């Protein structure tokens, strides 16, 4: 099955603020999930519906909806430690520990993003072995379950991304993802790496392999490298 790099990156991209680069890459996202085969058909179908929904939407409306969901509602925050520690000092220490985890494998966050931002966590996981990425998700599965349930209650298509993450964490989602779409088609994926021209968030992933994934929602750089 190879590594899980692109599956994690697709999910991280879908949970990121909608930018023109993401919208332009939407036609390839479902193809990557199908090609990698890490998710079952049911999860891919629900994600296909989310991809189609984003593709139909007007960019400003998509951005306003994203902000309304994830930035203005603490219950739906994608900053994971907020759900565990709130604004306490424990959250600061947890973020220090997470940054140390990134740095222990040679990476540091570029820019001002916090380390507990879910797309950042997924971007890091995309450059680690599959078993390690799954274990990282398993550690936060209770948060993913709660976020997914709250999104499903709002009939949000984003609940499909959380359901997929819960599955990757090795658990059964305790909610039904909002989905009305069909699975992505069996399209040619031979030119995906060329079509996705965005540089990866990591300069080099584990084993020295290039990241090779597009629309990196969070930028990392190799520790000690020049930004």
How would you describe the overall organization of this protein?
The protein has 227 residues and is mostly helical. It has one domain (5-202, 211-222). Helices cover 54% and strands 3% of the residues. It is built from 11 helices and 2 strands. It has helices at 5-14, 20-36, 41-56, 59-71, 81-85, 89-104, 118-125, 130-139, 141-153, 159-168, 192-195, and strands spanning 107-109, 220-222. The protein has a two-stranded antiparallel ribbon with strand order 1-2. Helix 1 (5-14) packs antiparallel against helix 2 (20-36) and helix 9 packs antiparallel against helix 10. It is globular, with a radius of gyration of 16 Å. The N and C termini lie far apart (33 Å).
Give the terminus-to-terminus CA distance: 33 Å
Total of domains: 1
**What percent of residues adopt helix (DSSP H or I)?**
40-55%
Beta percentage is under 5%
Briefly note the structural class of the backbone: mainly alpha
Helix-strand sequence? HHHHHHEHHHHHE
Low-confidence stretches: 180-204, 206-227
Number of helices: 11
Shape label: globular
Q: Total number of β-strand segments?
A: 2
Radius of gyration: 16 Å
The largest beta-sheet arranges its strands as: 1-2
Q: Mean pLDDT across all residues, rounded? A: 77
> How can the largest sheet be summarized?
2 strands, antiparallel
Q: What topology emerges from the helices and strands here?
A:
Blueprint: H1 5-14, H2 20-36, H3 41-56, H4 59-71, H5 81-85, H6 89-104, E1 107-109, H7 118-125, H8 130-139, H9 141-153, H10 159-168, H11 192-195, E2 220-222
Antiparallel strand pairs: 1-2
């Amino acid at each position: 099955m190879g590594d899980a790099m692109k599956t994690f990156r697709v999910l991280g991209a879908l949970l990121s603020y909608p930018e023109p680069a993401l919208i332009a890459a939407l036609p390839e996202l479902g193809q990557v999930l199908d090609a990698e085969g890490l998710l079952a058909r049911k999860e891919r179908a629900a994600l296909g519906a989310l991809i189609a929904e984003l593709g139909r939407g007007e960019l400003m409306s998509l951005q306003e909806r994203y902000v309304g969901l994830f930035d203005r509602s603490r219950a739906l925050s994608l900053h994971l430690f907020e759900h565990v520690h709130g604004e306490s000092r424990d959250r600061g220490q947890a973020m220090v520990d997470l940054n140390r985890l990134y740095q222990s494998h040679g990476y540091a966050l570029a820019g001002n993003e916090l380390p507990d931002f879910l797309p950042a966590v997924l971007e890091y996981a995309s450059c680690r072995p599959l078993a390690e990425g799954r274990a990282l998700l398993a550690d936060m599965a209770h948060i993913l379950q709660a976020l997914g349930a709250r999104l499903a209650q709002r009939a949000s298509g984003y609940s499909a991304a959380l359901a997929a993450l819960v599955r990757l964490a090795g658990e059964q989602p305790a909610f039904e993802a909002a989905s009305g779409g069909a699975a992505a088609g069996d399209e040619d994926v031979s030119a995906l790496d060329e079509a996705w021209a965005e540089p990866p968030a990591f300069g080099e992933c584990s084993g020295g392999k290039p990241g090779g994934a597009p629309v990196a929602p969070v930028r990392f750089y190799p520790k000690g490298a020049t930004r």
